[in-house]
Task: inverse folding
């Protein structure tokens, strides 16, 4: 069964450093998403991406964050200058989209635990 | 008011019982609704989606949607200890944004 994969599973970085989290969405999906979940808190939407551009973003997704689809398979989240409060689990998800017969059901990857020290 | 509100937990039911999980949402224009299960330390796993008013059944799970009341629910019949997890209600808005509730933690006692 196709699945979303994410690397690395755990990333430790120092405050102020740049990190790139990587995701490989399900191959025929058209919509890609990033979420984060701070320990013990709810899943929070960061950004959605369709047709090589951001379709929606939350207030959390400020200028420190960027997303990219550098090739036909990868989808990345970059945090330019990490802060302590960026420590969280980051989930990538993908969905087939709204085309005929497709749905917005989102399938999540296993997550990357980001620890900022 | 929270955009997506779930009944406060934790919820504990005996094995074999019906577990009932509830969710209300504020965006009246929302069209797609999802229930996810999340085990501790794991990612959300999609278990049900529902798009139109009424009931949708899949095995032991039944999702119910009432758009007029802005209410979504999930029933788990014949609850098993393996159903013990946090259940997340998610509402999909236009252009790709989803809002999740805080989750309800379910414990099924043998």
Result:
């Amino acid at each position: 069964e196709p699945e979303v994969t994410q690397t690395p599973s755990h990333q430790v970085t120092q405050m102020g450093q740049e990190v790139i989290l990587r995701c490989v969405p399900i191959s025929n999906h058209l919509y890609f998403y990033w979420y984060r979940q701070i320990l013990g808190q709810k899943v929070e939407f960061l950004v959605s991406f369709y047709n090589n551009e951001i379709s929606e973003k939350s207030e959390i997704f400020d200028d420190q964050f960027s997303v990219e689809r550098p090739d036909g398979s990868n989808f990345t989240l970059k945090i330019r200058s990490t802060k302590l409060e960026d420590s969280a689990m980051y989930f990538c998800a993908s969905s087939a989209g709204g085309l005929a017969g497709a749905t917005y059901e989102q399938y999540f990857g296993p997550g990357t635990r980001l620890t900022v020290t | 008011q929270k955009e997506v509100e779930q009944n406060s937990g934790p919820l504990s039911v005996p094995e074999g019982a019906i577990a009932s999980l509830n969710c209300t949402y504020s965006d009246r224009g929302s069209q797609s609704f999802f229930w996810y299960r999340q085990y501790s330390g794991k990612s959300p796993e999609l278990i049900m989606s529902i798009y139109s008013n009424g009931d949708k059944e899949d095995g032991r799970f039944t999702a119910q949607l009432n758009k007029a009341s802005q209410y979504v629910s999930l029933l788990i019949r014949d609850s098993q200890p393996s159903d013990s997890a946090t259940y997340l209600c998610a509402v999909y808005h236009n252009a790709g944004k989803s809002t999740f509730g805080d989750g309800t933690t379910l414990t099924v006692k043998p």
